Amino acid sequence: MTPIIIRAGNVWDGLAETPLGPREILIENGIITALEKSVQVPVGAQIIDLPDRMVMPGLIDCHVHITLRPEMIGSFWSFSGGYKALLGAEAVRIHLMNGFTTVRDCGDMDLHGYTVRDVKMAAEHGIIPGSRLINSGHMLSARSGHMDTTAILSPDCRAWQNNLADGPEEIQSLVREEIKWGAEWIKFAASGGFASPSDNPVDVGYTKEEMECLVATATQYHRPVSAHLHGDDAVRMAVLAGVRSVEHGAMATKETLQLIEENGVFLIPTQYAGVRSARFADSEEYWESIGNNPYEKMKMRMYRDVLLENARNLAKSNIRIAFGTDLGIMSYAINGAVEFGEMVTNGIAPVRALRAATSVAAEMLMRPDLGVLAPGKAADIIAVPGNPFEDIAVMEKVSFVMKAGTVYKSA
Ligand SMILES: [Zn+2]
User: Fold this and answer.
1) Of 109, 161, 246, 285, which is most buried, counting CB atoms within 10 Å of its CB?
2) Strands (E), 66-150
3) What is the Cα–Cα distance from 203 to 192, expressed in whole angstroms?
4) Distance (Å) from CA 75 to ligand 1 centroid
5) Which pLDDT value is given to residue 120?
6) Which candidate, 407, 383, 385, places its Cα nearest to that of 55?
7) At residue 5, what are phi and psi to the nearest 5 degrees?
8) Whether 182 contacts 280, CB under 8 Å
Protein backbone atom coordinates (compact mmCIF):
# COMPACT_ATOMS: atom_id res chain seq x y z
CA MET A 1 0.00 0.00 0.00
CA THR A 2 1.17 3.56 -0.77
CA PRO A 3 2.16 5.41 2.43
CA ILE A 4 -0.37 8.12 3.38
CA ILE A 5 0.12 11.33 5.34
CA ILE A 6 -2.89 13.08 6.86
CA ARG A 7 -2.23 16.76 7.59
CA ALA A 8 -4.85 17.65 10.20
CA GLY A 9 -5.84 21.11 11.36
CA ASN A 10 -6.57 19.59 14.78
CA VAL A 11 -6.25 16.11 16.29
CA TRP A 12 -7.84 14.40 19.27
CA ASP A 13 -6.21 11.06 20.01
CA GLY A 14 -9.01 9.29 21.88
CA LEU A 15 -7.41 9.82 25.30
CA ALA A 16 -6.40 13.43 26.01
CA GLU A 17 -8.53 15.89 28.01
CA THR A 18 -8.42 18.32 25.08
CA PRO A 19 -7.43 18.28 21.38
CA LEU A 20 -3.69 18.27 20.62
CA GLY A 21 -3.70 20.95 17.89
CA PRO A 22 -2.35 20.56 14.33
CA ARG A 23 -0.62 17.22 13.65
CA GLU A 24 0.56 15.01 10.81
CA ILE A 25 -0.21 11.28 10.81
CA LEU A 26 1.81 8.79 8.79
CA ILE A 27 0.04 5.58 7.74
CA GLU A 28 1.88 2.59 6.30
CA ASN A 29 0.25 -0.74 5.43
CA GLY A 30 -2.92 0.13 7.33
CA ILE A 31 -1.07 1.03 10.56
CA ILE A 32 -0.28 4.44 12.08
CA THR A 33 3.51 4.65 12.17
CA ALA A 34 3.98 8.28 13.27
CA LEU A 35 1.93 11.10 14.79
CA GLU A 36 3.95 14.30 15.13
CA LYS A 37 3.78 18.05 14.53
CA SER A 38 5.68 17.24 11.33
CA VAL A 39 6.53 13.78 9.98
CA GLN A 40 9.20 12.70 7.47
CA VAL A 41 7.50 12.28 4.07
CA PRO A 42 8.32 8.87 2.52
CA VAL A 43 8.97 8.74 -1.24
CA GLY A 44 5.71 8.51 -3.21
CA ALA A 45 3.48 9.17 -0.19
CA GLN A 46 -0.11 10.30 -0.77
CA ILE A 47 -0.97 13.51 1.10
CA ILE A 48 -4.48 14.07 2.50
CA ASP A 49 -5.01 17.65 3.65
CA LEU A 50 -7.71 18.21 6.31
CA PRO A 51 -6.83 21.75 7.47
CA ASP A 52 -10.25 22.69 8.87
CA ARG A 53 -11.15 19.34 10.39
CA MET A 54 -10.88 17.64 13.79
CA VAL A 55 -9.24 14.27 13.14
CA MET A 56 -10.04 11.48 15.61
CA PRO A 57 -9.94 7.70 16.03
CA GLY A 58 -12.60 5.73 14.13
CA LEU A 59 -15.68 5.45 16.35
CA ILE A 60 -16.86 2.25 18.04
CA ASP A 61 -20.54 1.46 18.62
CA CYS A 62 -20.63 -1.34 21.19
CA HIS A 63 -24.33 -2.16 20.88
CA VAL A 64 -26.08 -2.65 17.55
CA HIS A 65 -28.34 -5.25 15.91
CA ILE A 66 -27.42 -5.30 12.23
CA THR A 67 -29.99 -7.97 11.31
CA LEU A 68 -32.97 -6.18 12.85
CA ARG A 69 -35.17 -3.22 11.92
CA PRO A 70 -37.94 -1.86 14.16
CA GLU A 71 -40.57 -2.65 11.55
CA MET A 72 -39.44 -6.33 11.60
CA ILE A 73 -40.04 -6.96 15.28
CA GLY A 74 -43.45 -8.51 14.64
CA SER A 75 -42.29 -10.64 11.71
CA PHE A 76 -39.20 -12.59 12.75
CA TRP A 77 -40.30 -15.68 10.88
CA SER A 78 -41.35 -14.05 7.63
CA PHE A 79 -37.83 -13.00 6.51
CA SER A 80 -35.23 -15.52 5.39
CA GLY A 81 -31.65 -15.57 6.62
CA GLY A 82 -30.66 -14.30 3.19
CA TYR A 83 -32.79 -11.19 3.57
CA LYS A 84 -31.40 -10.58 7.04
CA ALA A 85 -27.87 -10.82 5.60
CA LEU A 86 -28.79 -8.04 3.14
CA LEU A 87 -30.03 -5.93 6.05
CA GLY A 88 -26.75 -6.67 7.84
CA ALA A 89 -24.72 -5.61 4.80
CA GLU A 90 -26.70 -2.36 4.60
CA ALA A 91 -26.15 -1.76 8.33
CA VAL A 92 -22.36 -2.19 8.38
CA ARG A 93 -22.07 0.15 5.37
CA ILE A 94 -24.19 2.80 7.12
CA HIS A 95 -22.15 2.47 10.32
CA LEU A 96 -18.89 2.87 8.38
CA MET A 97 -20.09 5.93 6.46
CA ASN A 98 -21.18 7.57 9.73
CA GLY A 99 -17.67 7.10 11.10
CA PHE A 100 -18.18 3.92 13.12
CA THR A 101 -15.25 1.82 11.91
CA THR A 102 -16.02 -0.90 14.51
CA VAL A 103 -19.37 -2.14 15.81
CA ARG A 104 -20.26 -4.95 18.17
CA ASP A 105 -23.44 -6.76 17.24
CA CYS A 106 -25.33 -7.51 20.45
CA GLY A 107 -27.70 -10.20 19.24
CA ASP A 108 -28.13 -11.88 15.87
CA MET A 109 -31.82 -11.67 15.04
CA ASP A 110 -31.60 -14.51 12.55
CA LEU A 111 -33.06 -16.95 15.04
CA HIS A 112 -32.51 -19.97 12.82
CA GLY A 113 -29.09 -19.23 11.33
CA TYR A 114 -25.86 -17.34 12.03
CA THR A 115 -26.15 -14.34 9.74
CA VAL A 116 -24.02 -11.87 11.72
CA ARG A 117 -21.08 -14.25 11.35
CA ASP A 118 -21.67 -14.36 7.58
CA VAL A 119 -21.82 -10.55 7.28
CA LYS A 120 -18.63 -10.26 9.34
CA MET A 121 -16.86 -12.67 6.96
CA ALA A 122 -18.15 -10.79 3.90
CA ALA A 123 -16.81 -7.48 5.25
CA GLU A 124 -13.46 -9.08 6.19
CA HIS A 125 -13.14 -10.66 2.74
CA GLY A 126 -13.83 -7.30 1.07
CA ILE A 127 -17.06 -8.56 -0.54
CA ILE A 128 -18.99 -5.67 1.04
CA PRO A 129 -17.81 -2.33 2.47
CA GLY A 130 -18.44 -2.29 6.18
CA SER A 131 -17.28 -1.67 9.72
CA ARG A 132 -15.17 -4.17 11.60
CA LEU A 133 -17.80 -6.38 13.19
CA ILE A 134 -17.58 -8.06 16.57
CA ASN A 135 -20.11 -10.86 16.86
CA SER A 136 -21.96 -11.74 20.07
CA GLY A 137 -23.99 -14.51 18.43
CA HIS A 138 -27.60 -14.77 19.55
CA MET A 139 -28.95 -13.27 22.75
CA LEU A 140 -29.49 -16.28 25.01
CA SER A 141 -32.75 -16.18 26.88
CA ALA A 142 -34.88 -18.30 29.16
CA ARG A 143 -38.09 -19.63 27.64
CA SER A 144 -40.71 -16.93 28.15
CA GLY A 145 -37.83 -14.50 28.80
CA HIS A 146 -36.94 -11.26 27.01
CA MET A 147 -35.72 -12.92 23.81
CA ASP A 148 -38.37 -15.62 23.54
CA THR A 149 -40.03 -13.92 20.60
CA THR A 150 -42.59 -16.68 20.15
CA ALA A 151 -44.58 -14.62 22.63
CA ILE A 152 -45.30 -12.03 19.95
CA LEU A 153 -46.64 -14.65 17.55
CA SER A 154 -50.10 -16.09 17.62
CA PRO A 155 -50.45 -18.79 20.32
CA ASP A 156 -50.98 -21.54 17.72
CA CYS A 157 -47.69 -20.78 15.95
CA ARG A 158 -45.15 -23.48 16.77
CA ALA A 159 -42.09 -21.66 15.38
CA TRP A 160 -38.77 -22.61 16.92
CA GLN A 161 -35.75 -20.46 17.66
CA ASN A 162 -32.16 -21.36 18.49
CA ASN A 163 -31.36 -19.03 21.38
CA LEU A 164 -33.50 -20.39 24.23
CA ALA A 165 -32.11 -22.35 27.16
CA ASP A 166 -33.28 -23.13 30.70
CA GLY A 167 -31.17 -24.59 33.47
CA PRO A 168 -27.38 -24.95 33.66
CA GLU A 169 -27.19 -27.98 31.40
CA GLU A 170 -29.02 -26.38 28.47
CA ILE A 171 -27.22 -23.08 29.01
CA GLN A 172 -23.81 -24.77 28.94
CA SER A 173 -24.67 -26.58 25.75
CA LEU A 174 -26.05 -23.45 24.03
CA VAL A 175 -23.04 -21.29 24.98
CA ARG A 176 -20.78 -23.93 23.40
CA GLU A 177 -22.99 -24.02 20.30
CA GLU A 178 -22.79 -20.21 19.93
CA ILE A 179 -19.00 -20.34 20.23
CA LYS A 180 -18.84 -23.10 17.63
CA TRP A 181 -20.71 -20.78 15.24
CA GLY A 182 -18.41 -17.82 15.77
CA ALA A 183 -19.60 -15.92 18.85
CA GLU A 184 -16.77 -13.72 20.17
CA TRP A 185 -18.87 -12.55 23.11
CA ILE A 186 -21.74 -14.32 24.87
CA LYS A 187 -24.79 -12.11 25.25
CA PHE A 188 -27.77 -13.05 27.37
CA ALA A 189 -31.05 -11.55 28.52
CA ALA A 190 -30.61 -11.15 32.27
CA SER A 191 -33.77 -9.11 32.74
CA GLY A 192 -36.99 -8.30 30.96
CA GLY A 193 -37.35 -5.33 28.65
CA PHE A 194 -39.46 -2.36 27.63
CA ALA A 195 -40.27 -3.08 23.99
CA SER A 196 -41.23 -6.73 24.57
CA PRO A 197 -44.86 -7.72 25.22
CA SER A 198 -44.63 -10.55 27.71
CA ASP A 199 -42.08 -9.44 30.28
CA ASN A 200 -41.26 -6.54 32.47
CA PRO A 201 -37.94 -4.66 32.81
CA VAL A 202 -37.79 -5.52 36.53
CA ASP A 203 -38.16 -9.28 35.85
CA VAL A 204 -35.00 -11.32 36.41
CA GLY A 205 -34.18 -13.57 33.42
CA TYR A 206 -32.12 -16.29 35.07
CA THR A 207 -31.32 -17.65 38.52
CA LYS A 208 -27.96 -17.02 40.20
CA GLU A 209 -26.94 -20.60 39.42
CA GLU A 210 -27.87 -20.20 35.73
CA MET A 211 -25.97 -16.88 35.39
CA GLU A 212 -22.88 -18.32 37.07
CA CYS A 213 -22.93 -21.38 34.82
CA LEU A 214 -23.26 -19.18 31.71
CA VAL A 215 -20.30 -16.97 32.70
CA ALA A 216 -18.17 -20.00 33.72
CA THR A 217 -18.78 -21.75 30.40
CA ALA A 218 -17.99 -18.61 28.37
CA THR A 219 -14.87 -18.02 30.48
CA GLN A 220 -13.60 -21.55 29.75
CA TYR A 221 -13.47 -20.48 26.10
CA HIS A 222 -12.10 -17.00 26.89
CA ARG A 223 -15.32 -15.31 25.79
CA PRO A 224 -16.43 -12.21 27.75
CA VAL A 225 -20.10 -11.93 28.68
CA SER A 226 -22.50 -9.08 27.99
CA ALA A 227 -25.89 -8.91 29.65
CA HIS A 228 -29.10 -7.15 28.63
CA LEU A 229 -30.20 -5.58 31.91
CA HIS A 230 -32.70 -3.10 33.28
CA GLY A 231 -34.04 -3.97 36.74
CA ASP A 232 -31.86 -3.41 39.77
CA ASP A 233 -31.98 -7.02 41.09
CA ALA A 234 -30.87 -8.47 37.75
CA VAL A 235 -28.04 -5.93 37.41
CA ARG A 236 -26.65 -6.88 40.83
CA MET A 237 -26.88 -10.60 40.10
CA ALA A 238 -25.19 -10.31 36.69
CA VAL A 239 -22.37 -8.11 37.99
CA LEU A 240 -21.70 -10.55 40.84
CA ALA A 241 -21.82 -13.46 38.36
CA GLY A 242 -18.94 -11.84 36.44
CA VAL A 243 -20.27 -10.15 33.29
CA ARG A 244 -17.88 -7.74 31.51
CA SER A 245 -20.51 -5.38 30.13
CA VAL A 246 -23.90 -4.26 31.35
CA GLU A 247 -26.16 -3.22 28.46
CA HIS A 248 -28.68 -0.46 29.34
CA GLY A 249 -28.62 -0.82 33.15
CA ALA A 250 -31.40 1.76 33.06
CA MET A 251 -32.98 1.03 36.43
CA ALA A 252 -29.86 0.37 38.52
CA THR A 253 -29.95 2.28 41.81
CA LYS A 254 -27.12 4.48 43.06
CA GLU A 255 -25.83 1.57 45.18
CA THR A 256 -25.86 -0.83 42.24
CA LEU A 257 -24.06 1.69 40.02
CA GLN A 258 -21.44 1.77 42.78
CA LEU A 259 -21.18 -2.04 42.57
CA ILE A 260 -20.67 -1.82 38.78
CA GLU A 261 -17.91 0.73 39.31
CA GLU A 262 -16.17 -1.28 42.07
CA ASN A 263 -16.17 -4.42 39.93
CA GLY A 264 -14.67 -2.63 36.93
CA VAL A 265 -17.64 -3.60 34.77
CA PHE A 266 -18.37 -1.50 31.68
CA LEU A 267 -21.82 0.08 31.25
CA ILE A 268 -23.39 0.84 27.87
CA PRO A 269 -26.33 3.11 28.72
CA THR A 270 -27.93 3.35 25.21
CA GLN A 271 -29.53 6.62 26.31
CA TYR A 272 -31.01 7.79 23.00
CA ALA A 273 -33.09 4.60 22.85
CA GLY A 274 -33.69 4.58 26.62
CA VAL A 275 -33.81 7.57 28.93
CA ARG A 276 -34.77 9.85 26.03
CA SER A 277 -38.04 7.93 25.79
CA ALA A 278 -38.53 8.47 29.52
CA ARG A 279 -38.04 12.22 29.06
CA PHE A 280 -40.66 12.30 26.28
CA ALA A 281 -42.91 9.61 27.81
CA ASP A 282 -46.03 11.84 27.96
CA SER A 283 -45.77 13.08 24.38
CA GLU A 284 -48.04 11.12 22.00
CA GLU A 285 -46.26 12.87 19.12
CA TYR A 286 -42.94 11.39 20.28
CA TRP A 287 -44.32 7.84 20.37
CA GLU A 288 -45.87 8.28 16.92
CA SER A 289 -42.47 9.40 15.61
CA ILE A 290 -40.71 6.21 16.80
CA GLY A 291 -43.31 3.65 15.77
CA ASN A 292 -45.66 3.72 18.77
CA ASN A 293 -44.78 0.43 20.46
CA PRO A 294 -47.61 0.16 23.03
CA TYR A 295 -45.64 -1.98 25.52
CA GLU A 296 -42.70 0.38 25.52
CA LYS A 297 -44.91 3.45 25.91
CA MET A 298 -46.78 1.94 28.87
CA LYS A 299 -43.63 0.73 30.64
CA MET A 300 -41.69 3.95 30.02
CA ARG A 301 -44.52 5.93 31.61
CA MET A 302 -44.59 3.52 34.56
CA TYR A 303 -40.82 3.62 35.25
CA ARG A 304 -39.94 7.12 34.00
CA ASP A 305 -38.77 8.54 37.35
CA VAL A 306 -36.47 5.56 38.00
CA LEU A 307 -34.84 5.98 34.57
CA LEU A 308 -34.30 9.71 35.00
CA GLU A 309 -32.76 9.21 38.44
CA ASN A 310 -30.50 6.46 37.06
CA ALA A 311 -29.23 8.83 34.35
CA ARG A 312 -28.48 11.54 36.92
CA ASN A 313 -26.56 9.06 39.12
CA LEU A 314 -24.66 7.62 36.15
CA ALA A 315 -23.41 11.09 35.14
CA LYS A 316 -22.07 11.59 38.70
CA SER A 317 -20.38 8.16 38.87
CA ASN A 318 -16.92 7.12 37.66
CA ILE A 319 -18.22 4.03 35.85
CA ARG A 320 -16.42 3.18 32.63
CA ILE A 321 -19.11 4.08 30.11
CA ALA A 322 -18.85 2.56 26.64
CA PHE A 323 -20.81 3.96 23.70
CA GLY A 324 -23.79 2.04 22.30
CA THR A 325 -26.92 2.96 20.38
CA ASP A 326 -29.12 -0.15 20.04
CA LEU A 327 -29.51 0.66 16.33
CA GLY A 328 -31.61 -2.05 14.77
CA ILE A 329 -34.03 -1.70 17.66
CA MET A 330 -33.93 1.96 16.54
CA SER A 331 -34.31 2.78 12.87
CA TYR A 332 -31.17 2.80 10.71
CA ALA A 333 -32.47 6.10 9.29
CA ILE A 334 -31.07 7.59 12.54
CA ASN A 335 -27.35 8.41 12.59
CA GLY A 336 -26.00 6.57 15.66
CA ALA A 337 -23.91 9.64 16.56
CA VAL A 338 -27.07 11.19 18.08
CA GLU A 339 -26.14 9.17 21.17
CA PHE A 340 -23.27 11.62 21.84
CA GLY A 341 -25.69 14.55 22.16
CA GLU A 342 -28.05 12.52 24.32
CA MET A 343 -25.22 11.57 26.69
CA VAL A 344 -24.19 15.21 27.02
CA THR A 345 -27.84 16.23 27.59
CA ASN A 346 -27.89 13.76 30.49
CA GLY A 347 -24.88 15.39 32.15
CA ILE A 348 -22.04 13.23 30.77
CA ALA A 349 -19.03 15.42 29.90
CA PRO A 350 -18.20 15.61 26.17
CA VAL A 351 -14.73 14.10 26.71
CA ARG A 352 -16.26 11.14 28.57
CA ALA A 353 -18.79 10.57 25.77
CA LEU A 354 -16.01 10.74 23.15
CA ARG A 355 -13.75 8.35 25.07
CA ALA A 356 -16.75 6.01 25.44
CA ALA A 357 -16.75 5.58 21.65
CA THR A 358 -12.96 5.36 21.27
CA SER A 359 -10.39 4.40 23.93
CA VAL A 360 -12.83 3.06 26.55
CA ALA A 361 -14.78 1.04 23.97
CA ALA A 362 -11.53 -0.49 22.68
CA GLU A 363 -10.55 -1.39 26.24
CA MET A 364 -13.91 -3.05 26.82
CA LEU A 365 -13.58 -5.00 23.57
CA MET A 366 -10.00 -5.98 24.50
CA ARG A 367 -8.79 -4.50 21.22
CA PRO A 368 -5.62 -2.55 22.08
CA ASP A 369 -5.13 -1.89 18.35
CA LEU A 370 -8.27 0.30 18.17
CA GLY A 371 -9.76 3.47 19.66
CA VAL A 372 -6.58 5.56 19.95
CA LEU A 373 -4.45 7.48 17.45
CA ALA A 374 -0.83 6.52 18.17
CA PRO A 375 2.01 4.70 16.43
CA GLY A 376 1.30 0.96 16.19
CA LYS A 377 -2.51 1.35 16.18
CA ALA A 378 -4.77 0.44 13.27
CA ALA A 379 -5.33 3.36 10.89
CA ASP A 380 -9.03 3.73 11.69
CA ILE A 381 -9.36 7.50 11.40
CA ILE A 382 -12.26 9.92 10.94
CA ALA A 383 -12.67 13.68 10.65
CA VAL A 384 -15.48 16.05 11.67
CA PRO A 385 -16.05 19.69 10.64
CA GLY A 386 -15.62 21.39 14.02
CA ASN A 387 -14.67 20.82 17.64
CA PRO A 388 -16.91 18.26 19.40
CA PHE A 389 -15.63 19.46 22.79
CA GLU A 390 -17.48 22.71 22.04
CA ASP A 391 -20.33 21.37 19.89
CA ILE A 392 -21.00 17.64 20.27
CA ALA A 393 -23.46 17.72 17.33
CA VAL A 394 -20.54 17.82 14.85
CA MET A 395 -20.17 14.08 15.55
CA GLU A 396 -23.23 13.65 13.31
CA LYS A 397 -21.32 15.20 10.38
CA VAL A 398 -18.38 12.86 9.83
CA SER A 399 -16.81 13.91 6.52
CA PHE A 400 -13.81 11.56 6.26
CA VAL A 401 -13.55 7.86 7.06
CA MET A 402 -10.51 5.60 6.86
CA LYS A 403 -10.53 1.97 8.01
CA ALA A 404 -7.24 0.05 8.20
CA GLY A 405 -5.59 2.61 5.91
CA THR A 406 -8.29 2.53 3.21
CA VAL A 407 -10.34 5.70 2.62
CA TYR A 408 -14.10 5.00 2.44
CA LYS A 409 -15.42 8.57 2.64
CA SER A 410 -13.81 11.84 1.73
CA ALA A 411 -15.47 15.25 1.41
ZN1 LIG B 1 -29.97 -4.35 22.05
Assistant:
1) 246
2) 100-105, 132-135, 139-140
3) 5
4) 17
5) 98
6) 383
7) -120, 125
8) no
Nearest partner of 109 among 70, 133, 138, judged by Cα: 138
Q: What confidence score (pLDDT) does residue 152 get?
A: 65
Q: Tell me which residues have their CB within 5 A of the ion that is ligand 1.
A: 106, 326
**Side by side, which strands form the sheet with 406-410?**
31-36, 21-28, 4-11, 46-57, 381-384, 400-403, 406-410
Residue 331 CA to ligand 1 center (angstroms) comes to 12
Q: DSSP string of 213-250? A: HHHHHHHHTT--EEEEE-SHHHHHHHHHHT-SEEEE-T
CA of 106 to the centre of ligand 1 (A): 6
Q: What's the CATH number for 4-58+371-410?
A: 2.30.40.10
**Cα 187 to averaged position of ligand 1 atoms, centre (Å):** 10
105 CA → ligand 1 middle, Å? 8
Contact 388, 350 (CB under 8 A): yes
CA Rg, the chain, in Å? 21
**Low-confidence stretches of the chain (pLDDT beneath 50):** none
Q: What is the pLDDT of residue 148?
A: 86
> What class does CATH assign to 59-364?
alpha beta
